[in-house]
Amino acid sequence: MSRAPLTSKGAQRLRSELEQLKSVQRPAVINAISEARAHGDLKENAEYHAAREQQGFIEGRIKQLEAELSHAQVIDISTLNAGSRVVFGATVTLADVETEDEKRYQIVGDLEADIKLGLIAISSPIARALIGKHEGDVVEIDAPAGRREFELIQVAYEG
After folding, report:
1. How far is CA 19 from the centre of its chain?
2. Which residues pair with 108 in a beta bridge?
3. In angstroms, rounded to a whole number, what is the distance separating the alpha carbons of residues 111 and 75?
4. Phi, psi at residue 6, to the nearest 5°?
5. How much is the pLDDT for 111?
6. Predicted model pTM
7. Is residue 25 classed exposed, middle or buried when 0-12, 13-18 and 19+ CB atoms within 10 A define those classes?
8. SS3 string of the chain?
């Protein structure tokens, strides 16, 4: 199995989620199951079934996070010295050539990608198009709305 890249910030976020699940949510759902059991007949007890279902989700997520973290290759971005070239961990500012709208993304591992936070996966079409490019380059990206051109305004490495 290949090791999935992960920024140190992303690894910390996943570890925090894992700790929250283990120390807060798991005990809470165990208490909810105990309380629901005390109400009697389990066949017709909706609280019990909902708590058991929630427990299944929590345990599944714990297993998933533990597996992902154990197979991840954590990369400290602050040690990278790629200059103006785009590599894993880079924070890039792009300007749409047509509309001049600027967007800012950080290229991260698949496990930590979250477009709402501006974190795009290394395997995404945008990241694949950007890898190896330099500030000032114009990049063509195949987007769902068609092919778009972006100018690479800035490349930064923020740990």
Report:
1. 17
2. 121
3. 13
4. -150, 135
5. 87
6. 0.77
7. middle
8. CCCEEEEHHHHHHHHHHHHHHHHHHHHHHHHHHHHHHHCCCCCCCHHHHHHHHHHHHHHHHHHHHHHHHHCEEEECHHHCCCCCECCCCCEEEEEECCCCCEEEEEEECHHHCEHHHCEEECCCHHHHHHCCCECCCEEEEEECCEEEEEEEEEEECCC
Q: What residues of the chain score a pLDDT lower than 50? A: 1
All domains of the chain in start order, with CATH: 4-75 (1.10.287.180), 77-156 (3.10.50.30)
**The token pair that represents 70 in the structure block:** 């154990």
The phi and psi torsions of 14 (rounded to 5 degrees) equal -65, -40
| Residue 28: per-residue pLDDT | 94
The HSE-up count of residue 21 (CA atoms within 13 Å, CB side) is: 19
Q: Is the dihedral of CA 125, 129, 134, 139 positive or negative?
A: negative
